[in-house]
Amino acid sequence: MKTTTTLHIPMSSPDLTNLEREAVAQVLRTPHLSMGDQIEAFEAAFCRYLGVKHAIGVNSGTAALHLCVLAAGVEAGDWVLTTPFSFVASTNVILYAGAIPVFVDVDPQTGNLDLQQAMQAVHDLTTGGKAAQRWLPRRGQGQHRGQLKAILAVDVFGQPADWDALRELADQYHLKLIEDSCEALGAEYKGRKAGVLGDYGTFGFYPNKQITTGEGGMIVTDDDAAAAFMRALRNQGRAPGDTWLQHTYLGYNYRLDELSAALGLAQMQRLEELLRRREQVAAWYNQRLKVLDGVEIPYIAPTTTRMSWFVYVIRLAAGIDRGQVAARLAEFGVPVRPYFLPIHLQPYMQERFGYRRGDYPVTEDLGERGLALPFSGVMSEEQVDYVCHALQMVLKSL
Question: Where are the membrane-spanning stretches (predicted)?
Fold first, then answer.
């Protein structure tokens, strides 16, 4: 962990080769830039990889989640149980449907939904009355009693939630189960691939993800009716048999273009290579940081048979000033980010629902101590060494 020169360390970088560049260039030699053979091939590659019947390419992971919420039958005033420790999209898509996100706190080790709290919340929400009120936001619920329709859980940082328990809970109360696996392509839960463990699963392909299409997402499901519905919604509500100017449903322009699909298809050909490279970078970090005082390295649950490394997030010990650490690391040329900032404390959520600090203490603690280090599959061991040495020096100086 020695360094004598300043290195340029990007926060994240996509892993692209001439295979991807040529795939995109090939599309530009055709007249087909939307809804062509590339999106069909990309979807088929996902079906093969995950062993699912349907894969539906869309223009973002957010769009994928939004369509899943609609396919779950969520309507205005309904409730969806979810997590406050996530990227805001997993909550926003519930709001897009006019529904109410109902938060439960998270497990302090994984950051995934706390199962005991989730089970109690589902029981209380379906019972109604005062039991339900303890889980609902202080305000912003509307004038009529809601109905719990779905659970939307997140595979945080590439680690699957405890899906067997969530599946049992959803089945017991006749709820739809949505898996936000946008950070977890390639992860495995008890030997099963992430994304196929709920009724509908989603993936995102932003440039910092395991594979990228620039912008893009994918829905996967074995539900024939839901798949047909979501395919129609992504294409301005056009159902099978509709002409270009006929629209059976109120839909959206959520299509994934051919250039992006070609890029994604090329990346899928390299998926195992991309996952192994990220695993190697994470292993370098783990080896160097596990002995560093004041730092907790990521925890891997026993149910996670393969971690898919989306980001590398450490937790600083209580009492360490994260802002000061970040500022000092910046002097070394090392960018870092808090990860995540609690959703319930975002200004628009506080204004609308009346959330306060202290409502979800575990989420808040993780949000205050979490620090994402530079991470991508193209990082070198020298760069990891540099980041770890800089962090060691900063913590020692503090």
Answer: none
Instruction: Please say whether the beta carbons of 182 and 64 come within 8 A.
Output: yes
Q: Which of 300, 88, 269, 304 is nearest to 192 (CA)?
A: 304
Q: Is the dihedral of CA 215, 160, 343, 81 positive or negative?
A: positive
CA dist., res. 56 & res. 10, Å (int) = 32
Q: Within its chain, how far is the Cα of 152 from the centroid?
A: 11
Inter-residue contact 374 to 11 (CB < 8 Å): yes
* Other beta carbons within 10 Å of 46: 22
Q: Which residues face 316 on adjacent strands?
A: 295
Radius of gyration (C-alpha) of the chain in whole angstroms:
22
Question: In angstroms, rounded to a whole number, what is the distance separating the alpha carbons of residues 371 and 221?
Answer: 34
Q: What pLDDT is recorded for position 2?
A: 46
Q: How far is CA 363 from CA 85, 355, 370, in A?
A: 6, 13, 10
Is 94 within 8 Å of 100 (Cβ atoms)?
A: yes
Residue 198 lies in domain: 18-269
The span from the CA of 9 to the CA of 31, in Å, is 39
Consecutive 10-residue runs of the chain (398 residues): their mean pLDDT? 68 98 98 97 98 98 98 97 98 98 98 98 95 93 81 98 98 98 98 98 98 98 98 97 97 98 98 98 98 97 98 97 97 96 98 98 98 98 98 96
Task: Return the DSSP state at 7.
Answer: P
Claim to verify: residue 130 and residue 247 sit in the same structural domain: yes
Strand order in the sheet with 188-189: 192-193, 188-189, 304-306
Which CATH number goes with the domain that contains 340? 3.90.1150.10
Single-letter amino acid, residue 101? P
Which distant-in-sequence residues (6+ apart) come within 8 Å of 389 by Cβ?
1, 2, 3
Quick one: tokens of 352? Answer: 């609308």
Number of domains in the chain: 2
- By the 8 A CB rule, do 69 and 178 touch? yes
Q: What is the pLDDT of residue 144?
A: 59
Do 371 and 339 meet the contact criterion of CB atoms below 8 Å apart? Answer: yes
In a domain? residue 11? no
What CATH number corresponds to the domain at position 148?
3.40.640.10
**What is residue 116's predicted lDDT score, i.e. its pLDDT?**
98
